[in-house]
Amino acid sequence: MKKELAKVLSVSELTQAIKEVLEPNFCSLFVKGEISNCKLQSSGHLYFSLKDAGSQIQAALFRGHAAKLARMPKDGDQVIATGEVSLYAPRGQYQILIRDLQFLGVGELLIQLHQLKEKLQARGWFHPEHKKALPKFPKRIGVVTSPTGAVIQDIIHVLTRRFSGFQIVLNPVKVQGEGAAEEIAKAIEDFNKYNLADLIIVGRGGGSMEDLWAFNEERVAQAIYESKLPIISAVGHETDFTIADWVADVRAPTPSAAAEMATAEKANLLQFLQGARKQCLLRLSHQMESYRRHLVTLKKHPALSSPYGVLAPLIQRLDEFSRRLEILNPKVKIQEHKDRLRRLQEHLRSLNPRNLLKKGYAILFDEMNHSIILSSKHFLLKQNFKVLMHDGVVEAAAKQVQEHGTFL
Fold first, then answer.
1. What gap in Å lies between CA 160 and CA 259, rounded to an integer?
2. Which long-range contacts (CB under 8 A, 24 or more apart) does 181-188 make?
3. What is d(CA 313, CA 395) in angstroms, rounded to the nearest whole number?
4. Where are the beta strands (DSSP E) in 173-293?
5. How confident is the model at residue 308 (pLDDT cuts 50, 70, 90)?
6. How many angstroms separate the CA atoms of 402 and 27, rounded?
7. What is the enclosing helix (H) or strand (E) of 103?
8. What are the C-alpha distances in Å from 107 to residues 35, 74, 218?
């Protein structure tokens, strides 16, 4: 009896059999490898090979999953692919349908970054009390960056636009690649050693984590921490954070912002002075206008338009007060009394009998009682009497008494 012949399979049957065995057993797996021959189709799907030193396998990353990645993969990326094995029957080719990619380079760097951050934080390098205040009016601003990049141009543009009268001292360095961290640290140390600046801006433009990695090196962190000069860290874009940012005295989101921070106090002072100048000019203008209106009002005042009309009553009152003062003046009163006394003396002199006697009059006295004889009726015949004249006395006797008589 002949041996029973084995079942003959078609290519499709064999492929399907393999598919049924392969796919259920490799429906979720992680594969580590390097991407090569990466091609992006117009449909948005991505096809590439995943290889290592001994072999390779085709991979497909469809548009929906590709959109969820942090960045698109490229040749040379070391990745861990998450997906499933699929057999493509028309070609009899198995491949990996990828759902997610973890970029091994970034992952390893993130681990290193986290470890260094915890290490330096434990040392106290991030503590606020270690931060130095920025000088208010720096005269020399040091810059540690690439001499050919846009960063130095942005910093120069901002500083010169805002102010003048200070120096920008550039210490050129590599900002990425081998030796960059050492150059950056050495530049910071030189600024301190030779006292070349009042503060230092350390930075570069944006880039990937790998591009910015020099600023995550402990060598750079130590130079920043030990710096006696205040340091502003300006690495990458606003969302980028490096070890240098945490250790620095001030972190700026961009190099241009760092330039503004370096001159913030001076800018505030200048703004204050400009505002004060405007305020002074405004107040001076208002005050001058007030004085002008006051002068116009004074010009219309009667005291200026007709001064004598205003002064006349005052002059009259002054004269009146002067007269009163003269009256109340003791010398004036004494003189008045002297004048009155003089008039009384003259009056008394005029009443003095001797003055009348000089005019030819005489006074008759009774010889017996010395009384004045005022009438002829008082005379007796042969009565003796005395006649007082201005220059002497005459004794006489009455021979005859004749009333109402005359000399003639």
1. 10
2. 181/214, 181/215, 181/217, 181/219, 181/220, 182/219, 184/144, 184/214, 184/215, 184/220, 184/223, 185/217, 185/219, 185/220, 185/222, 185/223, 186/223, 187/144, 188/144, 188/220, 188/223, 188/224, 188/227, 188/231
3. 74
4. 199-204, 231-235, 250-251
5. low
6. 195
7. strand 93-103
8. 16, 16, 19
* pTM: predicted TM-score of the whole model, two decimal places: 0.47
Tokens representing 403?
């009333």
Q: At 407, is the pLDDT very low, low, confident or very high (cuts 50, 70, 90)?
A: low
Task: Name the residue with tokens 């360095």.
Answer: 173
Euclidean distance between the first and the last CA atom of the chain, given in angstroms as a whole number: 238
Sort strands 199-204 and 140-145 into parallel, antiparallel or unpaired.
parallel
Taking the mean position of all CA atoms in its chain, how far away is CA 199?
22
CA distances from 83 to 23, 65, 253, 357 (A): 11, 11, 38, 172
Confidence check: pLDDT of 408 > 60: no
DSSP 8-state assignment for residue 293: H
pLDDT bin (cut points 50, 70, 90) of residue 5 is: low
Average pLDDT over residues 281-288: 91
Domain locations in the chain as residue ranges? 11-107, 124-128+137-262, 354-397
The third-level CATH classification (topology) of the domain covering 124-128+137-262 is: Rossmann fold (3.40.50)
CATH of domain 11-107: 2.40.50.140
CA distance 256 to 313: 78
pLDDT, position 26? 87
For range 241-248, the mean pLDDT: 95
CA 173 to CA 201: how far, in whole Å? 13
Signed CA dihedral, 371, 377, 380, 384: sign only: positive
Q: How far apart are CA 214 and CA 216, in angstroms?
A: 5
Average pLDDT over residues 28-44: 90
**In this predicted model, what pLDDT tens digit does every residue of 154-193 receive, in sequence order?**
999 998 887 777 899 999 999 998 899 999 999 999 999 9
Q: CA 391, 397, 402 angle in degrees (round to 5)?
A: 105
CB neighbours (10 Å) of residue 214? 26
Q: Are 199 and 135 in contact (CB under 8 A)?
A: yes
